[in-house]
Amino acid sequence: MKRFTVGVFAGLFALSAAYAAEPAKTTRMPAPSIQINKDRGEQCVEPTEEMRRNHMNYILHQRDETMHRGIRTTKHSLKNCINCHANPKTGSVLGKDGFCASCHHYAAVKIDCFECHTDRAEKKAAIPAGRPRQALAPVIRTALGQPRQRHQP
Amino acid sequence: MTINRRGFLGISGAAIAVSAVAPGLRLIELAEGRAPDQAVTPKQRWGLLIDAAKCADGCTACIDACHEENGVTGNNRPATDPQWIRKVTVEDNTTGFRQSFPVMCQHCEHPPCVDVCPTGASFKRADGIVLVDKHTCIGCRYCMMACPYKARSFIHEVTTGQKTHAPRGKGTVESCTLCVHKVDRGDNTTACAVACKKEGHEAILFGDLNDPGSEIRKRLKQKPSTQLRPDLKLNTGVRYQGV
Amino acid sequence: MANIHYRPFEGCTTGFYGVLAVLAGVLLAALGAAWYMEHNGHWVTGMTNQVIWGTPHVFAVFLIVAASGALNVASISSVFGRALYKPLSRLSGLLAVALLAGGLMVLVLDLGRPDRLIVAMTYYNFKSIFAWNIFLYVGFFAVVIVYLWMMMERKMNVYSKPVGLFAFTWRLILTTGTGSIFGFLVARDAYNSAVLAPMFIVFSFAYGLAIYLLVLMAAMKGSGRDLGDVVFTRLRRLLGVFIAGSFYFVLVYHLTNLYIAQRHGIEEFILLNGGIYTQMFWIGQMLVGGLIPMVICFHNGLGRSRALVTLACLLVVIGGLAQMYVTIIGGQAFPMQLLPDKTLVSSGFFDGVVASYRPSLPEILLGVGGVAIALLLTAVAVRALPFLPESLADAVADPHHKAA
Prior knowledge:
The structure holds 3 protein chains of 3 kinds. By secondary structure, chain A is mainly α. Helices cover 49% and strands 0% of the residues of chain A. Chain A has a domain at 33-125. Chain B has a single domain (46-241), classed as Alpha-Beta Plaits, CATH 3.30.70.20. Chain B is built from 7 helices and 9 strands; from the N terminus they run αβαββαββαββααβαβ. Chain B has helices spanning 5-34, 61-69, 112-116, 142-146, 180-185, 191-198, 215-222; strands at 46-51, 85-92, 98-104, 122-124, 130-132, 153-154, 173-174, 204-208, 238-241. In chain B, the strands form 4 sheets. A 3-stranded mixed sheet of chain B has the order 8-1-9. In chain B, a hairpin with a 5-residue loop joins strand 4 and strand 5 (130-132). In chain B, helix 2 (61-69) packs across helix 6. Residues 25-32 of chain B have low confidence and may be disordered. Chain C is mainly α. The model of chain C has no long low-confidence stretch (mean pLDDT 94). The chains are: A mainly alpha, B alpha+beta, C mainly alpha. At the B-C interface, strand 2, helix 3, helix 4 and strand 6 of B face helix 5, helix 6 and strand 2 of C.
């Protein structure tokens, strides 16, 4: 009995040792370089610090609102995130310098958003539509008593 | 009629004002339907009316349009490639009379797929549209076992190049969404209905089954219609005439 | 009755470790197969949008049904007070847990998104039989483990009867839930029947006991312990009764369907012209899994042979898998109709035709892996803890036994 138990634990130990023996990386992971589509404005939908900490909660909340209740406001939608944050060169939030991928890789947090969602900005949205329209829309929305939000062309 | 300088300025000023305010007016118009921040309500029950008599043999416009609109792509493997809408041919057992019509998710009032889904990923929206919440779908495929219409597909392979409004990915189940993104936008139609109309058949009509003034209700009142698998009493949102 | 002594399996023989190694190898292959299916997507399997549940489900449902059946031996002792079954109870509880673990592993690894198991545990739709089953399965583990504790800890022995009764009730509800996965499906003609739940319960009696008897004979022989004819004969006759019960339910199920005109299509398909499914039914389920083992179990001459009874148990297992294949895959292969009095003749999506299905190697490996992990868990447990009695010789098992 004792011999058997010892055997089992020895096996497990050997296994974990094999994993630990993987050569440790000596260089630190380089911090992600974030490329933002500057045409879309300097300010995110919430203060940057807030977004850094809690973006997932905003997206999660919006996800259920849109999916189950048909609420299509864009302020906190993933679509809006991607349209603004897609890399101007690649049009994507993934890839080495992608906004989502680079940071999530750095933080070692796995996301599966993009197994279903496209990682690319909408074609139309990549080049911002006429400025005056964008400037006017929020005014009218406020007049209509709707929450102020970014205009979705 | 001559226009003096002052008049010209007035008209152009008005034109500029209209073009500037127009997007806002469009918003007001949408707000009367449903603003983006308003939730769907059971006041509407969206559905389709399919007139099999008008459905042309060999025409696949609705299928092509649907799959284009929603980015539904396959890999030339018919058994595992997804389908949201398909054409079927039925034959009368006694007379041998044949006809074809499209079949998609029937958006039941009592959807068996919703009953069996363990996580609630398969759900019915307040306005009657039956959807899969792919965020909570675990890919058990029990809904596909339960659906009498074979309306659902399991995504058997890695997908790329999805449409922004139609996320879809490996390991989850999908089906016709009644073009929910168009419905929410206030388009008041679906890709299949548009395509069918463009071909000149007008076999597919989208509308609100709860609104007595809607075209769909009027046509349903004029002529007899049926549901698929009427024995199951699922009260489908898709109705058929001419079968 | 003489005091029963339980002892862990002591033979650190190469044979024992050989068995462990083989089982571990099969399990590794199964995990590899599961990874392969998940990585590529399910198109690499035989499963399609027509046959949605394939070979993994055949094995998974079989193992889950057998798990609840394996607990029966313990129930007969605790609930129905049969002293003869008391020394057999611990192994019964162990097998129940191990088989359920095997079935669930297969079921979970076949999910489209097995990585979302946490979602299945946190989002519930209480109208779904699957959701009930998640509670029933997890609860079954807990209940049976407590039950084993009551049986194995002398101080707790007094509670083994009420806990045993609770576990027995739980297992009946569990198998009702498993049968109702199919029984509550209105869409397909092969399902949609309340009789599926009790039918699965009776199937579970047979499958569970067959596996129990196989494992008991192998374990007693492997550790050089006696298994007397009294216990052996009782168990084999009981197996015969359970097989006969299965026959009865299959008969009622098909007679009901034959009486309903709407169901004539599916009956003709399964009983007459369904090709592989018809063969699986008549040859696999009825002849191999039913008639032959029943004759062996009831026949006093043939039944005396341990080899033949081992064969009978194996045949019950094979017949059980055939039954699941007919029910699960045959039930999906048969086409559904959309309108009364009209036959679906064609479509771009395989409507109106019998769906083809061919099990792929990864699916089979995953299914067999479920069996492997169940046996592996059992082997390790009987090696580590006193599950098996030191002897089941006639004089020990039956105080009234008189040596001939």
